[in-house]
Amino acid sequence: MRTHYAALVLAVGLLAGCASEPAPVAAPEPTPTVVPRPLTTAERAELADAEAEMTRRCMEREGFQVFLTKAPAGPPDLPYGNDDLQFARRSGLGLATVDTGKLRATDPNTRYVASLPADRQQAYGRALNGDPNQAMSAQLPDGSTDNMSRVGCTAWAQSELYGDGERWFRVSAIVNYLPAEYLPKIDADRRFRTALAGWTACMRRAGHPVAGPGQLRAGFPAYRTVPSAKEIAAAIAEATCSRASQLIAIGKRLEREHQATVYHAHRDLVLEYQTLSVAALARARTY
């Protein structure tokens, strides 16, 4: 069983949504006032800002402070590696430039909670996350469950924003799970395995005997300020081999293909997710 509770540290970029939002799918007629569609990245950030601010106000009413801090930009999302030689020469493998562990330790929310007496720390957690004994549950496609308290400031903010907090929790929990269904299909696809074999053979000839882009990056520090000459050399080799094998183009094409199949199988939930998101965006702009 997995349990979902909001983190104590709130960042402006936080959003209870999926990283790769579903494309529109064929489904029953939408409601007259809300036309479901995928939100843009900027719109999802707008929703996140609204939810964070609503949570902050709720916590203030409960007698606690919450600081809304800007999360630093993370490394680029490169699930299939990189094939841009200019990027490789400039940014290496695109690794993180910030030690997030140290950042969390110095976050004003972390310091604030640590400054509270033990009983107030517990009260802070209850005010934010609610009572786990008053949980709502969503059964995921793999049979596991995702749980979240129906009370507390996190639940209140989502209820205000999405109109029906329990409905949003259950729908979003399932839709957010769906990448776990289609991503393994990409790795198992014969077309992807063929491209990856070409990539690994090319990288081996270049002096990098690795099984994939993830393993290549694992051989370097988790974060650094600037890429080393060694990292840039590895990144140039990766970009060259990615172009030759077409690994990235094939990976992205297969991701769209398998994602569409999985989302189509759950089209009613995807439509509901989009409907709730669009309606929440309108509320966020009037809050």
Architecture overview:
The protein is mainly alpha-helical and 287 residues long. The chain folds into two domains: 1-69 and 107-176 and 269-287, no CATH class; 76-99 and 179-265, no CATH class. The protein has 13 helices and three strands. A three-stranded mixed β-sheet has the order 1-3-2, covered by helices on one side. Strand 2 and strand 3 (145-149) form a beta hairpin.
The count of helical stretches stands at 13
Strand content: under 5%
Question: What structural class is derived from the secondary structure elements?
Answer: mainly alpha
Question: What is the total domain count?
Answer: 2
Q: How are the strands of the biggest sheet laid out side by side?
A: 1-3-2
Main sheet overview: 3 strands, mixed
Number-wise, the strands total 3
- Compute the separation of the termini in Å: 35 Å
Computed over alpha carbons, the radius of gyration is: 22 Å
Average pLDDT for all residues: 89
Helix content: 55-70%
Order of helices and strands: EHHHHHEEHHHHHHHH
